[in-house]
Automatic annotation (TrEMBL):
Transmembrane annotation, as ranges: none
Claim: Transmembrane helix is one of the keywords in the record: yes
The name this protein goes by in its record: MOR1A protein
Main location: membrane
One CC-aspect GO term: external side of plasma membrane
Entries under SUPFAM superfamilies matching the protein: Immunoglobulin (SSF48726)
Source taxonomy: Eukaryota, Metazoa, Chordata, Craniata, Vertebrata
Membrane topology reported for the UniProt record: Single-pass membrane protein
Family of this protein: Belongs to the CD200R family.
Organism: Neopipo cinnamomea
């Protein structure tokens, strides 16, 4: 999220036309077209954050600037040549790292929270298993996962929470 993403079309000789067909999960479809014989581009319902990017190492590609959850979906590039039509499909999914935190609640129980991640983070406790889990989905498509330790071993002074997420893992210890 927030970075630019570049999706490449199949590299073929003698291209006559290129077309990106974009079907986001949210909102309407859009398309970007390019004809080599007239050197013209056409845009239908696509936001200004999506543009052609021509680089020698990639060939024709689509650049999406400041990618957000609204851009999730299917992206199909169709390349037309005298030898036939060639397709490449991308399924664009956002990875949003959660904001982890560890604190003691009003009852002195450790609480571990992984806020606003996508996909949802996995939260667990090191050496402890008695916990409750709350999951809250947000309109943005992100999810907050909260784990409250309900019982602690009496011989353990520090409790460690571990958050697992594809964007990176995190752990911290606390004594309540």
């Amino acid at each position: 999220v927030g970075d630019s993403s570049v999706l490449a079309c199949p590299r073929k000789p003698n291209i006559t036309m290129l077309m990106w067909k974009i079907s986001p999960k949210v909102g309407g479809r859009c398309s970007l077209g390019y004809r080599t014989d007239t050197n013209t581009t056409d845009r239908t319902n696509c936001s200004d954050s999506m543009n052609w990017k021509f680089r020698p190492d990639l060939g024709p590609a689509l650049e999406i600037q400041q990618v957000g959850i609204a851009q999730e979906g299917n992206y199909i590039c169709e390349v037309v040549t005298p030898d036939g039509n060639f397709h490449r499909t991308y399924h664009l999914t956002m990875l949003v790292p959660p904001r982890p935190s560890l604190y003691c609640d009003e009852h002195g129980h450790p609480v571990c929270e992984a806020a606003a991640g996508k996909p949802p983070a996995q939260v667990s406790w090191l050496l402890e298993s008695n916990s409750s889990l709350e999951v809250e989905s947000h309109d943005s498509g992100t999810v907050t996962v909260l784990s409250r330790l309900t019982a602690c071993s009496t011989n353990v002074t520090d409790t460690t929470c571990v958050v697992f997420h594809p964007a990176g893992n995190w752990s911290e210890s606390i004594a309540c």
